[in-house]
Amino acid sequence: MRRLSTHLLWLAALLILAVLPGFAIQAQTDPNPICTAAQERSTSAFTANCGDLPEGFACYGATGVQAIPKTPREDFFNFEGARASLQDFVSLQVTGVEATGQWGVAAINLGDGAVASASDPYENVLLVLTGNARLEQTTAEEPNVKAFLFFTDRTTCVEAPAALVIRTPEDKANVQLNINGAKMSVSSTVILRTLPPGNVMQLYTVEGNVVLEQPGGGSTITVSTGQTTVRCLSEPDNIGFDGQSNDRIVTDSCGWTTPVPVTLEEQLLSESLLKLLGDNVVSSLCPNGGTNLVHNVARGETIARIAARYGVTIADIVRENNIINLNLIFVGQSLKITCGVDIGYTPVLGGGGVVITPPPPPGTSTIP
């Protein structure tokens, strides 16, 4: 009798483990109405306020932005649509949905309008700060390299995340930046976050690739599309221009970890930020002319790129194909795309891809 009870307990445990991933996927893909409303409002405001941001300027994109100017004044950068020269700033801070119900968004165009475009390595390179995050200017050890300190706090909204997004134009590769003391060469679109309790920095390459320098300056790693890596940060100190001991930087005690594929939550987070930036990511409703398609996964593709190609969301593909683990998507797999419009891929600079996984053993079904 005792042996039977033990077997039943083990069986129950296995059943729970089997269904938990499905519940996790459902929880992550079902939209939060408060977060979604904040995302939609801020995306619309950001597009209207920052769509033509000049080089060397910052823009107050959507409600919930606070700025510290180099020269104190009361009327500085205090309304949606406000713009000011990057040279006037010490720091920017944006609020998150949890605190205010609003998704704060600010943007900076790192270009130098006084320099000829051909010789300006930062021409139209954008930094976008979102939700419960802080960005502060600092000085890099390397000459002529732009440097910043940033921090993002905990958030429960994948629709309105806290993040620092770096986006380079298609004709700009290997843009040199120093972020929290980390030297990086960026080509295309990257998301940066600090993870709770704030002593770990995460980098996620949405498109293109990033080359990161390891401690000691001797070796580098490349983080390609759909991959992420982390690195530990120091204890808080006063390093930036605001005079506060709230800055953390990378140390030589630990380097960047080996890049790994991103999780579903991270892909959904990136989808929200791509919407903010105006990329082709739309709702689950059929766009005009949409049809039901089948896409065969090719080498280097991620769910995010496939979703953008067909004008659907990551959540759509996950639900339609009963995907439990995005890391098990493999080359040659057939994915159902409902109401898709094939617009093709937008070229991405330095677009090294990842081979997701090999195909499963013969006889394994690709679509449930």
| Terminal CA distance | 38 Å
* Silhouette: globular
* Strand/helix succession: HHEEEEHEEEEEEEEEEEHEHHE
**Count of helices?**
6
Q: What percentage of amino acids are in beta strands?
A: 25-35%
Kindly provide the radius of gyration, computed on alpha-carbon positions and rounded to a whole number of angstroms. Answer: 22 Å
Number of strands: 17
Features:
368 residues, alpha+beta, 15-stranded mixed β-sheet, two-stranded antiparallel sheet, 6 helices, globular, disordered N terminus
A few lines on this structure:
With 368 residues, the protein is α+β, with helices and mostly antiparallel strands.
Written overview of the protein:
- The chain is an alpha+beta fold and 368 residues long.
- The protein has a domain at 33-271.
- Helices cover 21% and strands 29% of the residues.
- It has 6 helices and 17 strands.
- The chain has helices spanning 2-29, 33-50, 97-100, 264-276, 303-310, 314-320, and strands at 57-62, 65-69, 83-85, 89-94, 105-109, 126-130, 133-139, 146-152, 163-167, 175-179, 182-195, 200-213, 220-224, 227-232, 260-261, 291-296, 334-340.
- The strands form 2 sheets. It has a 15-stranded mixed β-sheet that branches. A two-stranded antiparallel ribbon has the order 16-17.
- A hairpin with a 4-residue loop joins strand 11 and strand 12.
- The two termini are 38 Å apart.
